Amino acid sequence: MSRRDQSRIDPRGRKVKILATIGPASRSPEMLDRLVRAGADAFRLNMSHGAHADHEAAIIAIRALEKQYAKPIAILADLQGPKLRVGTFKDGQAVIRHSGHFVLDRDETPGDENRVCLPHPELFGILERGQRLLINDGKIRLKVLEADGSRILCSAEVGGVISDRKGVNVPDAEVPIPALTEKDRRDLAFATDHGADWLALSFVQRPEDIAEARKLIGSRNVAICAKIEKPQAVHRIDAIIELADGIMVARGDLGVELEPYEVPPLQKRIVNAARRAGKPVIVATQMLESMIESPSPTRAEVSDVANAVYDGADAVMLSAESAAGAWPEESVAMMDRIAVQVERDEGYKARVRFLATPPDATTSDALAHACMTIADTVPISAITVFTASGSTARRVARERPATPMMVLTPSVRTARRVALLWGAHAVTTKDIGSFEEMIGKGRRMALRHGFAQAGAKLIVLAGVPFGTPGATNLLHVVTVTGDELEKHGE
Fold first, then answer.
1. Active site residue 3
2. Domain 3-81+178-347 is in which class?
3. Of 285, 387, 409, 472, which is the active-site residue?
4. Are strands 315-318 and 382-386 parallel, antiparallel or unpaired?
5. For residue range 208-241, what is the model confidence (pLDDT) as tens digits?
6. Which of 9, 81, 407, 435 has its CA 20 to 30 A from that of 114?
C-alpha cells in the first residue's frame, strides 16, 4: 500500500466521518477495500435491498478489512420501515388526469385511471379533507376531498403516470402504524446476530418508536440511529434525540413530505439539536447524486457536502453513489477531499464550536469543555480519552476540539460505534486499574499510534473509579517521554 493510501485511511487527517452504502457496485471485498482506502469510515447495509446472505458476506469482508488496517469500522444496518404503497394496475400503470378525481379504496381489483387499491386500512380512518397524499416521491400530488372507512376521494393537484406499488407519503397526518414491520423485525434480528454496530430506524414518528426498537434489541450492545424523514418527527425532535443514540437527517423522504426549500433550515436545526445533546448526527441522501453516472460532481453538490461539514455534522453519507453507481471509489474520495478542504478553512473551527454551556451540564461536560480550552491555550498533541461506553468521547466530540482525539476503550463494540463520531480515533486496549496505569498507557498509545512524540503534551481524560460508565471526573496533562514503549505490550 502506498504512503498516499495509508494517509487516506488515517482518520486523524479528517474529523468528519464518511458513511458509504453497500450495494451491487461495492459489495465485493476488493471494492470494499478500495472504499476504505479512499476514506470510508463506516458502511451502511440497506435492508430494503439485497438478501441476508449478501449482507452477511459484506459484514465478513468489512471485519477482515478492520483487522488488515487495524481500524475500527462501523456497520449500520438501515431498516426499511413501514413503506406505504398503492396496489397494482390492469396494465401495470395508468395516467391520473391533472385536476381530475382519483379514488383510493380497499378493493384489491387491479386499478385504472380512476382508482386503485390502497392496501393500508389504517389510513382510511385518519385522513381528512384538505390533507395531501404524495405518490412516487411526490411526482403525483393528491388532495383529499372525502374520506371514510373504505374510500378516499381525491383531486389531482399534479397528475401523471402512476404504476404498480409506487410509494405513498402522508405528510399531513400521523400514521398509526408501528415503526417496525415484520420484515424489519427479521432484519433487526439478523443485524444484531451478525454484529451490526448501529441500527437505523426509518420513518420514525414518535419517541415510542425508539423505545419499541430498544426493547427488541434487548441486552445486545447495538446503537439506535433515528432517521428524521417525517414532519411528525421534526415536531418531536428533542424527545426523539433524547431516546436515540444518534440521528440521521434523511433528506430524501423529508424533502418529499415538506417543500424542498424547507429542508435546508431544518437540516441545520436538527444537526444543532443533536450536537447540543452530544449525539452523533449524519447528513444523508443525494449528496453527490450526479456521481452515480459521472466521475465528477456538480458544484452545487460540492457546496451541499461542504455546508453539512460546516454545520458540524459528525458524518456525511453516500447512498446510490457508492451502492449502485458507476464511480463508488471516486465518490468516497471526492467526499473525503471536500471535507478535508473545509476543515482546513480558517473559519471552520469557529463555525462548529459550541460556546454555550447546556443548562443541565454536569462535571463530565465541564471537563470535556476544559479539554478544548486547554488545547487552545497550550500546545497539546492529543486528547486521550479512556471510556468503556463511549459517553466521554461523545462529550469531547460535542465541543469540536481542533486537537486530535484518541479514544482508548476495552470494548470492540464501543470502538466501532465511535467510528461515526466526529474526530474520534478509537483504539481497543486492555482496561486500566489505576491512575499510574492510565497515565503510562496514555503515553504509550499516543506514541504507538502516532499522536505524539517525545516531549509532547497530552490531555488524559477518564473516570474514577475506572470502568464505571458515565463517571468522567479526572483530567490530567502529561508529557510524553522517549522510553514509554519499552517493556510494554498491549
1. no
2. alpha beta
3. 285
4. unpaired
5. 999 999 999 998 889 999 999 999 999 999 999 9
6. 81
